[in-house]
Design brief:
The chain has a domain of about 90 residues: Orthogonal Bundle (Arc Repressor Mutant, subunit A). Helices cover about 45% and strands about 10% of the residues. It has 7 helices and 3 strands, in the order H-H-H-H-E-H-E-E-H-H. The protein has a 3-stranded antiparallel beta sheet with strand order 1-3-2. Helix 3 runs antiparallel to helix 5. The radius of gyration is 29 Å and the shape is globular.
Amino acid sequence: MRRECKCLACSSALEQRLVLPSPRVRSLSNLPKRPTLSRLKRYSHPALKNIDLADVMQALADPCRLAIVRALLATRGRELACTDIPLRISKATRSHHFEVLRDAGIISSRCEGTKCLTSLRRRDLDRHFPGLLKLVGRQG
């Protein structure tokens, strides 16, 4: 009766004699490219002639959106990231509010690196609706 040796030297020699099928390895070059931030975020902004007073007033009727616009007014033209504005709401709700303001033509957003910067379309709004931003800026 023949006994098998189970020492490391014999087991490694046995492994070398056996030809095991190699697992299929996918090349990383075959994988689809992961989209970059610049390809993910493309914001559209309405032209000045397409900004409607009713849409602007409806967008400003929400307290969170009003707080966003007031925070942007306080920066005096500087851009802010959406996380720079202190709001106690979820990311999804925050994103929705920024989208409503953007669609109404109140704010403008652009991506820079990993941040999306937002500014008030002050010049356009003052030209189209004179005095509106002064009223929005008043507290109380």
